[in-house]
Design brief:
Number of strands: 9
Distance between the termini: 34 Å
Strand content: 5-15%
Number of helices: 10
Shape: globular
CATH superfamily: Glycoside hydrolase/deacetylase
Number of domains: 1
């Protein structure tokens, strides 16, 4: 068991050598679409409508159905947008989706060429699973079999890990994680086997904390994404950056929010020197160009 400071060194952005992106781009932008399978016979992963008297209710019908809406309706709006603009996303997916009732969603994302990222075997924080190492291993194997290629990325449910998780992830074959939102460029982390990358990731550009936890109005998504992008785009002239957005079909796929997501993306698409990509492609670029 190692603490973070034993796995990587501190690095200040102004003191680094200049990084490069393909064709001299200023900024790499990628989107994570979270696809989950919620078990109605277990406590719900999160609530939009709280249970009466503050108790934990099982089954939690309205909040389970809220998530189900994302699979039945919301995800298809998101797929339509990405397909229209010839863009690919990265899906952080519970492995059980690939064989459960949500398999048509997994199939549509695979056919669209999206990257599949591990998001637990099922929707549960790794602290709570009976065998964390087996959960990670099964996630890797299911995604590998379903997509025909080894997954490289991992986003823990809720971004949560234990201090041993990185070692288990590297041993299973994962190459990068989004659970360390601590930088705007990739960071290499030591493990008990091969190194693993901390992929730049922004918790504050995730629709779950923004829209559900902090209860912002739908239009706040557009304002925050544009403000983040504009600053990173400007700074990227001197030192290229990575910007992530994390969305859920049952949150961003609803009608009153989707237009703000689309408008923010279309604003970014209007700019030059932006690399719209997947987390996997950022990982590949980073390691294929270390010596440049």
């Amino acid at each position: 068991m190692k603490r973070p400071e034993e796995r990587f060194e501190f690095s200040a952005m102004p003191q680094r050598a200049k990084w490069s992106l393909p064709e001299g781009k200023r900024i790499a932008v990628y989107t994570v679409v979270n696809i989950e399978e919620w078990d109605i016979e277990k406590p719900i992963a999160r609530e939009y409508v709280t249970s009466p008297a503050g108790v934990s209710t099982v089954p939690n019908v309205p909040n389970w159905a809220w998530h189900e809406y994302g699979m039945r309706v919301g995800i298809w709006r998101l797929l339509d947008f990405f397909n229209k603009h010839d863009l690919r996303a990265t899906t952080a997916i519970n492995a059980t989706v690939c064989s459960g009732s949500g398999e048509p969603v997994a199939r549509a994302m695979k056919e669209a060429g999206w990257e599949f990222m591990g998001h637990g075997y099922h929707q549960a924080a790794l602290h709570t699973v009976e065998d964390q190492q087996e959960n990670i291993r099964r996630s890797f194997e299911v995604l590998k079999e379903y997509t025909g290629k080894s997954p490289k990325g991992w986003l823990g449910p809720g971004l949560h890990e234990t201090l041993d998780t990185l070692d288990y992830l590297a041993k299973a074959g994962f190459k990068y994680v989004c659970d360390f939102p601590m930088d705007e460029q990739p960071v290499e982390i030591k493990t008990s086997s091969s190194p693993i990358m901390a992929m730049p990731y922004s918790m504050e550009l995730s629709d779950l904390p923004m829209m559900v936890v902090h209860t912002h109005e739908s239009k706040v998504w557009y304002d925050r994404v544009i403000d983040q992008f504009d600053r990173l785009y400007e700074e990227g002239k001197e030192q290229p950056r990575v910007m992530s957005m994390s969305i859920h079909p049952y949150i961003m796929g609803v009608p009153h929010r989707l237009k703000h997501f689309e408008a923010a993306y279309e604003y970014m698409l209007s700019k030059d020197d932006v690399w719209f990509t997947t987390a996997e492609d950022i990982y590949n670029w980073y390691y294929n160009n270390l010596d440049e």
